[in-house]
Amino acid sequence: MANHKSSVKRIRQAKAHRLHNRYYARTTRNAVMAFRKLENKEEAVEKLPKLSSMLDKLAKKNIIHRNKAANIKSKLARQIARMA
Fold it and tell me: Where, if anywhere, are coiled coils annotated (predicted)?
């Protein structure tokens, strides 16, 4: 166990931050999976900006890497382009 008050507090904070980050990362992953299942192009075009914003926010807060966010956004845009 930790010996210093500051390390005890740091452990407590890390736990809270981890839970917070996991919630937002999981929420975004669920949104991406739901987006990938879409078959209607108009609906996909409508949802892409909101999903891109979610990914950008996660990257900005270092919850996911910025390149990962860019890769996901690129793949989603390519998916829309391939839709009939």
Answer: none
